[in-house]
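Hello forum,

I keep getting stuck at the same step: I have a sequence, I want structure tokens, and every attempt I make locally crashes halfway through. Rather than fight my setup again tonight, could one of you with a working pipeline run this one for me? It's a single chain of 295 residues.
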Amino acid sequence: MGVALLESSGAARETFEEADDSLGFPLSRMIFEGPAGELQNTVNSQPAIMTVSIAAWRAWRETGGSQVADVGAVAGHSLGEYTALVAAGVLDFSDAVRLVRRRGELMNQASVNRPGAMAAILGLDELAFDQICAETGVELANINTDNQIVISGDRMAIAHAVDLANARGARKAVPLPVSGAFHSSLMSEAEEGLSAELESLHLREPRVPIVANCDCRSLTTSAEVRAELVSGLCRCVQWKDSVRTMIDSGISHFVEFGAGGVLAGLIKRIDRGVEVSAVADPDSIRKLAENWPAP
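Reply #2:
Ran it on my machine without issues. Output:
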């Protein structure tokens, strides 16, 4: 993850070095070499994912790609909101990578104290999920598309909910390889710690609107950003509606920065009429440059 960016871009290389310096340990070595088990721990995966995303974004800008003033809005899915904050000028990357490391620590401790699980369900509508949640006590964690929803909660409750989803015609029900019940009330004890961490940082006013996960509105002040980040620990990520909010505002070209391209795929399933690009390596940067709209 990120090796091609490291080898091809000075801006990306500086990003990995900045992450290491900011955290006081070689996160970049873990990103490039593993071990996978250590990297997958949310304490490490959160700063790792954000570092690769920022490295891709900076590598794109290094080639003359779009600046903040050129875009209509930024958004991120859960952890991705922190990448969006850096792009919008709200946080310096060095502060942001330490913040998400701390976020991971708080979420990990909450998971130890109140163990839980998550599962992705495909092929059921929101009404069916509302009924399953009412019967099992699980909570909606992500509404990603019309037919992809993630649930979160107590492990036994998640297992029961998966059985009910299968019995009621779900196309697929997949337990997720995560360490806790993220975006549910089981994360509530992490809110106080994250709030305190945010109070210690200087958040600047966004240079471009940030479309929130929780209620899909545009965040235009640092106070709104603080509230969104804290409440986002326990509330559902309304990704489908966030994307539709951006489309309704006139945005027709979405660019995902970072490894995987998962969000690009979700956006295409939300609206096939928009243009979507995913930037994760030199080849995708070149492709985006060739297709970027002329000013």
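DSSP finds 14 helices and eight strands in the chain. If your local run keeps crashing, start a new thread with the error log.
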